[in-house]
């Protein structure tokens, strides 16, 4: 490993007036516009912004991974005194992996599916002609131990699909750290992970950084994460830096409105309150605070009541194959009142999505009852079931995949009513009105899904669900794919519509912070069972089940949460 | 253990499918108009009813269909595919005699198309934005769209008639009686034109598919990871992009391999190649039911075998596909 030549105190990385030009016809001229910042060894800098803010672009430029069409328009990026943007490909390649390591957002796709984990780690040494094949393997094992992968010896021989998301991210980190780089770039490394896993990974990154004295550039959209690990923060919006400073300072006294909006989008007061009971009442009693006022859903007549719901997924492998079983739902029972919002919270694999799909009728439960206004839906079939389907509609998680790309938005919304016998012209007129209801202009009906942003598409998804005048809406991770500020807008829309149209809402999410913003009552699920249920307030203030406590503790930013910021109506 | 039971299950299903195909083919062939006895009698120049009846009785054609089916099936189960009265030989011997020539031709075509198709596709993908990439794709499109018989005739015209580089037809030089290496060389020279002709279409398909597949794989996240490691571009192309891009090719190659016995009728006819394809054509024209059924059986057998082989190879190539995994 070559010794750094710079004198102590000088920044390891200095970005000077960097501008990255987008291809012609993009919605703005520069992905990154005249950006300058420094990063010193041993420091964690969080670059924060929402999608499209250009926060990852600088990192990609450093690694020579800019998407085609994006080019450096001006400025320099000095790494240890050398301008990496002006380097030839060969010396740049020597830098990548060796002195600058990078980890990515999607642990599911960032590893080659056909190569064993050990081979992929050893490849880093091979790329820089270091060590013998045997020594590479030993180092790979040592690295897997260092990132605390359970059973590193067998992980070495495992294929990526055999590991969980969190384990894969640990492998990615092991790979990035293999050659002890001086700079680690982490591009949203925890966004795709469950909250408990996220906490572990954050802890690991911080721990490794402290032990090795690396500089870390941590790119995120989440101020909770910032509060957890950052030394300094750089807030970006539309390619420009809007605010930069010490983490504590920015979190406690954000100067720019945008920073404040981002921080506010996290119900920090609730989250902070978990550990400090004294503040809880203050948070709850404040009008517009993040914990909704308690409304007792059980007193009104239940719209939906579910009892004894079981669902087991079986895969049969053929004539001589043993069957494999996964219990997705195990004796689920609850009820949902008219006009009530019930949150179903759990991590991936908890069965929460299966529950939603059973209620909408996309999956059939093995046993149990789903009663809507007293009618058992799980016993209905054919025409009778179709008549009731209208009453329960779903908003899906992925705003990109849940709209047919070849069908105009207006038609996508009108298809439901048309299938139920509404004349086409009338249905299309309704669709236009619905688009206005969800805050899109009428012209939107004539356009195709790809012309809309993620948040707009989710509004379209909501309009589509509303088109059939349902009584119950099941929202499955409906805001999980959205930026926090967009999340807040969509949540507000859902909440407003629910009140106006007297809807009931079943809100499925893995994110307790989101659940806190909208739900009256909560159900916490783990491995197909309900482990805890109660009002949102009860669950946040006095979680009974260890799993719920674990979930709450894992929320990033909890311990370091900033002083309560007044939640503005526009954000909630 | 799981692997053994998987194979057993597959073989069990394959046997059932084969038997069903036998029965189906049997009825299909008997539903077709024409009567082998009449054809034979016509060729012998005899037209009297007594002669026809004798022929029918001799070949069992006077029996009701179910009885004929029963006789045929019980024969097949003892590996007796009947007797070809036209060729005066047992069907099995006829087929086994012609099979090597066909497998040589189709096997060579298969290897040529797979090898050169993948190489050309990979080159085209790496040069997607350069003229050389476009030229490869242009050629691929040309061969993809051109009918096989036309390519065959043009190849003969150019390479045999005009240039006189290669023999125009046949399996070996008639009357030369080469032995040893000389014979191998002689057959190889005869093989070039038909094998290329037969392989061109699939080569074009592989080229197009490899290119598309590589370009889409190169957009995936793990390629970015590989670049972030500092790997050389060539290593990334080979180890990360090409390997993943080849998975869909395996499916297609299995499809092509399944046609190895029955897919060369046209080529064998044009190049007078003494293989199964020509045998099938003759059997069809002469209403040689037993022979035709035998060839059909071997075609089906090969399709099923290669389907199973494709599954096995796919499992080896892609660790994610495990029995029971969803």
UniProtKB/TrEMBL annotation, chain A:
GO terms for molecular function: ATP binding. Residues 13-263, 307-552 form the ABC transporter domain. PROSITE patterns: ABC_TRANSPORTER_1, ABC_TRANSPORTER_2. Coiled coil: none annotated. SMART domains: AAA (SM00382). InterPro entries: AAA+_ATPase, ABC_transp_ATP-bind, ABC_transporter-like_ATP-bd, ABC_transporter-like_CS, Oligopep_ABC_C, P-loop_NTPase. Belongs to the ABC transporter superfamily. This is ABC transporter ATP-binding protein. It comes from Salinicola endophyticus.
